[in-house]
Amino acid sequence: MENRAVILGTRAVTVDYPGVRALDAVTLDFRAGEIHAIVGENGAGKSTLMKVISGAMRPTEGELELAGHSANFAQPSEAIAAGIAMVHQELNLVPTLTVEENIALGREPTGVLGIAVDHRAQRAQARELLALLGSACETGELVSSLSIGQAQCVEIAKCLARDARVLIFDEPTAVLGEQEAARLFVQLRRLRDEGRAVIFISHHLDEVVTIADRVSVLRDGQLVESFARDQSGSLRDARGRSVDAGRLAAAMVGRELGSLFPNKGAAIGGQPAIELIDFGARGISQGISLSVSSGEIVGIAGLVGSGRSETAQAIVGLRPQAGRILLAGSAVRFESAGAAMRAGLAYVSEDRKGSGLHLSLSSIANVTLPSLDAYTSRGGLHVDSNAERATTNRWIDTLGIRCARPDSPIALLSGGNQQKIALARWLETNPKVLIIDEPTRGVDVGAKAEIYQIIAQLARDGLACIVISSDLPELIGLAHRVVVMRGGRVVGGASREQLALRNCEERIMRIASGLSAELEACA
What we know:
Blueprint: E1 6-17, E2 20-31, E3 34-39, H1 46-53, E4 61-66, E5 69-70, H2 76-81, E6 84-87, H3 99-104, H4 119-132, H5 148-160, E7 166-170, H6 178-193, E8 197-201, H7 205-211, E9 214-219, E10 222-229, E11 235-236, H8 245-253, E12 272-281, E13 288-293, E14 297-301, H9 308-315, E15 321-327, E16 330-332, H10 337-343, E17 345-348, H11 352-356, H12 363-368, H13 385-399, H14 415-427, E18 433-437, H15 445-460, E19 464-468, H16 472-478, E20 481-486, E21 489-494, H17 496-499, H18 504-512
Parallel strand pairs: 3-8, 3-9, 6-7, 7-8, 14-19, 14-20, 17-18, 18-19
Antiparallel strand pairs: 1-2, 1-4, 4-5, 9-10, 10-11, 12-13, 12-15, 15-16, 20-21
Helix pairs in contact: 7-8
């Protein structure tokens, strides 16, 4: 691998923010025909490094080299012109344009006269790229109508349309199920085999071990270790020792991690806190019957498009619902999220940076917003800011939120700390049932362990928890039992005993993808 040509290099790149050194003299080579993964905890410097490479930021010191020549970029358009394309973790699409218009945006094919857009060619290109990703998106569909997973596929297709020599994928599988991720990996390998340099950033260390030819670890802004795949296909360190996900995690945090998942123990076994009877999100899911007791963690598995998130949204009044809901044995129906919250339901969205949080507002505002009435005078003219601050500080201490100033915008916080803020804002409403969708999406391995501990403790304290996740090891390690959805219905599940079996993950995936029937689950 060392003989492959270096397309892009960083040379002692340093970036300083006020009072913080985000990158400290980082030197790396990105080679043609190689998938190079960059890993590190949130705040390690990964995003800053990608901003420098993609032209969104100039380094304080050091420089880039592109094909052996100095190539610091003043703006992203210069990086794009130089052959560097990036699929961002936060989608960079125009919701009012169609799928095909977004894919071709800025480089639309034109007709003979070079004036009008050649819509037939544009549509054909979009269909070809989406087919490579295994996406069923209609090219004429508005992006605003797509799910997060579908929109991510469009973002990736848009990047592939640029025919770049260097492609940066920032958490590309964060919103994809296992089958979609597997299709993406096939495409990444094809790009590598065509001689492109692929930069891959992911918090999913098992993915990194599977896909990467080389792995570089950042910690506190410094390059601390690199690993490369040898001729036998094994990822190894400088001493020739085999490297697995646990070894990567230890390099990231600078210590050996204990068990990622807490000892979940037995569910408390209280009375049903919530029961769904022949329930569904109207037009999307149906016939769902599920009971979750106080002190129990129930996981919901399924591929993208299975109806998991939409069903959760219907439970809390964000979508039209069908069927019945019982809370502590009493029938309820919610016409709004506010009504669900007042009844004791809390919903932490999968899209924390979109609908889940207000990034421009402070930690204080985000934590207290759903329960603002408790801090407002009867006439609504005065908000008790001291009480708001005290509440926020209490949750910062309780959940271990790393937040220097609670009155600063939460956009400055890491993904893990943002997710803890999202939890705090709904726990402050004193819920009886917590529904949390993709609890650790975009969160580093250290913060994952902390969030798992928080959820497990909430269950021990008597909260009924429903956890929706595309990460099967997460559900298996955290939940007392798991149900599987496909096509808007519950099609299978795994008990606590079945979750402990070695082949359970494979069996759940087979059920989710329609390859097995329920009775075969984890047998």
